[in-house]
Amino acid sequence: MKINQHYLELEKSYLFTMISKKVAQFQQQHPEVDIIRLGIGDVTLPLCPAVVEALENASAEMGVKETFHGYGPEQGYDFLKEKIAGYYAEKSVSLAPDEIFISDGAKSDLGNILDLFDADNTVLIPDPVYPVYVDTNIMAGRKVVFANADASNGFLPLPDENTDADIIYICSPNNPTGAVYDHAGLKAWVDYAKKRDAVILFDAAYESFVADPALPRSIYEIEGAKEVAIEFCSFSKTAGFTGTRCGYTIVPEALVCGGVGLNGLWLRRQTTKFNGVPYIIQKGAAAVFSEEGRRQTLANIDYYRENARILADTLDRLGIRYTGGKNSPYIWMECPNGMKSWEFFDYLLENAGVVGTPGAGFGTNGEGYFRLTAFNDHENTEKAAKRIEKLLSK
Ligand code: PLP
Q1: What class is the 5-47+292-392 domain?
Q2: What is the model's pTM?
Q3: Ligand 1 test: best mutation among 112, 234, 242, most atoms within 8 Å of CB?
């Protein structure tokens, strides 16, 4: 028996462990400090009433013989897929229900999709980025090359004709930088993928935070993208489903690689290895698209947007450069006075009692940057913003 040696090539995931350790140590030494966490990437508002009602009704249905549901379709119930297709139609993207696959969240599918691709492919991943893309490819033994995201390109790298890649990751709005591609940026990637016969894996987990109607929320808003891109999305940040678990992956019929349609391949993969998302959860997700559900989830997103605005305004007053915060729950700030990411983490914790996430934890280009999130409540966010302003205006 031999284990998959590639697991041994993974770097220790110490970012959040290290943060917890440092915070616990500081709190022990300074129990009087009320620490505010702006490092969290999890939502804090509860599920909206329309979703809760749908979950309750579906639970009751499961207790009655006539309305009980056993195994459902692996790729999701039509009632949810139709709602998602309707949501895309609002963005002028037409999707057939069979192109939509319901999942238990974007993270699983971002990892699972790699089953479809040979280990020999070269993968292009932006740096800095959501660490799951890198680690899942290392596990499979794939060669990873990086696209530099930095201040010179507004943290939105464009294709480099000298780089060869078969699989390309794009995350927009981006975690951790909060940067969002415009149509021209995404079109450049679609054109590049077409030229190289490459596939784009587009992570739209934060699409619902895009407030500017001029910015794309789906890669399929770009002409021809259906021929080259798979899109991953999630109810986690849109509707507070981080603990409820539901997402969806779109594999267009038009996406053909080496003469093989990826839609059929993914269907085969899912029907073999996955038994679907619970009926109750899919009913809850469908309620996100009801009139009430839309209104209530939007109100929650607006609540987080207001937090982002408070933090962004503070950085504006301090003259600190940042990306994100306007169409994203993340604010990616330059550490003041040339401080390194971890140095600034310690400085902010020790002098303001505020916790963020050191940019260096997201990749080499994250050094010197720091991520703040909009997921705390108004009161704490305002308090943290005041403390940051007081400390950094010295
Ligand atoms: N994609 C990005 C960029 C994320 O930041 C996250 C979670 O933080 C996910 C995907 C995971 O989403 P889900 O909760 O649907 O698995």
Answers
A1: alpha beta
A2: 0.97
A3: 234
